[in-house]
Each structure stands twice: as C-alpha cells, then as structure tokens.
Amino acid sequence: MQDGPLHEIPHFREHNLQGIKSIFASEQGVTMMANKLPPGQFETESGPILHQGDVYEYKEEHWNFKLFGEVKEEIVLTYQEVMKLPKTVATIDMHCVTTWSKFGTSFEGIALRELVKFAQYGDDVQFVKIYGYYNGDRFGYSANLPLHALLGDDALFVYRWKDGQHDWQDISPKHGYPLRFIPPASFYLWKGTKWVSGIQFLKQDEEGFWEELGYSMTANPFKEERYR
Q: pLDDT category, 95, cuts 50, 70, 90?
C-alpha cells in the first residue's frame, strides 16, 4: 500500500486510458442525450434526498481515498491530495429509480479519469465498484459500473453544484459531503455513491449494495433497467 505525496504517473497508463476511451466512443450509448426524459420518469426541479443508513460525519484527519483491487499496488490519497487534482465542471442529467429526473444541474468536481491514472492495471480490468460510507463502515456501500463508460466529463466526484434556482454551493452532508460520485445520465442515480471512500478495479462485474438486493447490474434508465 502506498500513502503520502502524489507519485509519478507511468506513461503507459495514458495509453491504457486512450484505449478504453476508444471503446466507449465506438459504442451506441445514450450518455449524450441531454434533457431527454427516460420512459417511466417525470421531470422535477428539486429531487428528494434519498439515502440508506445514517449520514457520514466528515473529519479530514480520518478521510482518505483508496484505489485497490486488480491493481499492481494499492494507492491511498488524502483529502488534500484529491482536491489538488484537476477540476471539471459539467451539467449532468440525473435519473432516480424512484421515477424522478432532474435536468440542468451543474457540478464541479474531480473526473474519475483523474483518479484512475494513479492505478496500474491491465487491459482485462473492465469494471469498477465505487465505495462509500454506510452505517459506520466507510466501505459499507458500493455500486458497480463499467469502467469504459466513466472516462468522460460526466463521471465526477463532486463537491459543489448549482442549478437554475441556486448559485454555486457545497453539497450538503445528506447529499454526500465531502465528495459524492455523480454518474453519467446513462445510469440510474443509485450508481452515484455518497460519502465516497474508494474505487475497486475488477476483471469481472460484481454486485454492489443495491444489486445484491435485486436491482439491475446495468441500470440504464433509457431501457428502464430498474430490477433484475
């Protein structure tokens, strides 16, 4: 396990990311369908706050972010190290499995691609699980996702947001402070882990928290992939 200052990123990591991005670009996805309402959804200007378990109490001295799993070496980053990474601002549509959708929310955060650059993994790694806090366990919650779909500007670990009714503001503790993952619009919002704690790299897809309870592994709102 490596801790401490940010280490030099090997050149081959950029090559791997470019290859995965090419796969993503060639697929017939729906991530660019801005303001398109998926079937079975209704539009709202203020989505309700939904979460399982209690609310995480952030203390910087106890917080870190872990990159682990099918990697050459586990990496642990501090909050300050994560926040020094390049920032991205993007407007991302949100679609909740409870049938509400919200358009026009902009987020500022760190793109997932900036974090995966620190991990050395092979081409056979195709999936990730994004972990977060749940009832006293910083790794008690997880959501599975295909890695290739998360390398654009619309897969962010966010810390602030704005919309048509609100100026920029930090995300609240109930929304996942200090960092919450927002997935691309091609996934239902339960894939957006709150109170994030790490990324696990996987060769095979694995169930996350809600997937173990019968929710869809792929969770595409445009195909109404709610349950299995």
A: very high
Instruction: Domains for the chain: give ranges and CATH numbers.
Output: 11-223 (3.90.420.10)
pLDDT at residue number 76: 98
How many other CB atoms sit within 10 Å of the CB of residue 28? 4
